Amino acid sequence: MIGYLTMLENEFNFTEQINLKATLDGGQAFRWHYDGGGYRGTVGSQVLWVYEDEKNTTVSYINNSKSQIDRRLVSKYLDLEFDLEIFSNKYSKDKYINSKIKQCSGLRILKQDPWETTVSFITSSASNVEKIKKNINDLCIFAGERLGDGRYDFQFPSAEQILDLGEEELRKMGFGFRSPYIIDAARRMSIGKLNFRFIEDADYEDSINHLMEIKGVGKKVADCILTYGFGRRDSFPVDRWVRRGLVGPMGFNSKKTNEQLSDMARTKYGLDSAYVQHYIFYGEKTKKKNLEYI
DNA sequence: ACTCAGGGTCGAC
DNA sequence: GTCGACCCTGAG
After folding, report:
1. DSSP class per residue in A118-151
2. DSSP secondary structure of A31-42
3. Which of A5-9, A265-269, A277-281 has the lowest mean pLDDT?
4. Rounded CA gap, A30 and A20, in Å?
5. Do the Cβ atoms of A69 and A61 come closer than 8 Å?
6. Which of A52, A80, A218, A263 could form a disulfide with A75 if both were Cys (CB 3.0 to 4.6 A apart)?
7. Whether residue A69 has pLDDT greater than 80
8. For residue range A226-258, what is the model confidence (pLDDT) as tens digits?
9. Is domain A4-71 classified as CATH 3.40.640.10?
10. A258 φ, ψ to 5°?
11. Using one digit for the tens of pLDDT, what is the confidence trace for A154-199?
């Protein structure tokens, strides 16, 4: 993969703290690939290459067809306006949360495309990150528009493109029992029954219920879609990893269901819910076995 | 070769 | 509210 060097005028850098590996390839997004010292992926119809050195982080546009770099879009995507220092200070006295923030400092929550996020987290159920990545990237390669000359330079397919593919093709690609769920989401999307504008303006309950009308979307997946696709901060997805942190070191009642735990955590953490949850998720997932948190 | 579980959810009881 | 089924894949 050489050839970036001719494009280097199409780039910008920033100094906000960010942990690229944890943020781009830590289980919230599935289409960033480590390549040549940085991460290559797409945002919308742009192919990006992101890398860091001692001083700052650089975002480079590989296939920039426009003359202007849309810095604001990338900033929003990476959630650079979120003040990690304030967040960190706020929980400095909470032994467990503080240890998780220290464990993976620079971890941010991405603001991804809602449609891609919806399909990705339907795909995630009873799966694992490696398989989700394989499924989602195969789908993009097979049904999405090519954006660049890289192995993974594809735009995420539209609802119509996925409908054209059909359930059987999804099964052949390895989506398994999730295939009809993805078709249901695509059908709702294409007829306007799945309405992202509504979700953007609705309160938490209404947003969750709207998403849960999709087959294969339960409370947990709906929470993930709101967190990683809509930038909501009052959502608290509870999966097996987060549950482990909540009922273990954080002392929540282990008899509660994940849904109950989510409600309790939302009440407790309010608008910090999404970030607290994500630090628990990533921290628990990457924790070395047989190593206590302190 | 065989079992098991991985960012859950659905439908029947 | 509980429980098995659901597809596939890599690890033990």
Report:
1. HHHHHHTTT--HHHHHHHHHHHHHHHSPB-SSST
2. --EEETTEEEEE
3. A5-9
4. 13
5. yes
6. A80
7. no
8. 999 999 999 999 999 999 999 999 999 999 999
9. no
10. -60, -40
11. 999 999 999 999 999 999 999 999 999 999 999 999 999 999 999 9
State the nucleotide closest to A125 in CA–C1' terms. B8
Q: What is the pLDDT of residue A229?
A: 98
Distance from C-alpha of A214 to C-alpha of A207, rounded to nearest angstrom: 12
Which single residue is written with the structure tokens 């999804």? Answer: A170
Question: Residue A181 class from Cβ within 10 Å (0-12 exposed, 13-18 middle, 19+ buried)?
Answer: buried
Give domain A114-229's CATH superfamily.
Answer: Hypothetical protein; domain 2 (1.10.340.30)
| Burial grade of A283 (CB within 10 A; 0-12, 13-18, 19 or more) | buried
Residues engaging strand B (CB under 7 angstroms): A 27-28, 121, 124-129, 131-132, 177, 212, 215-222, 224, 228, 237, 239-242, 277, 281, 285
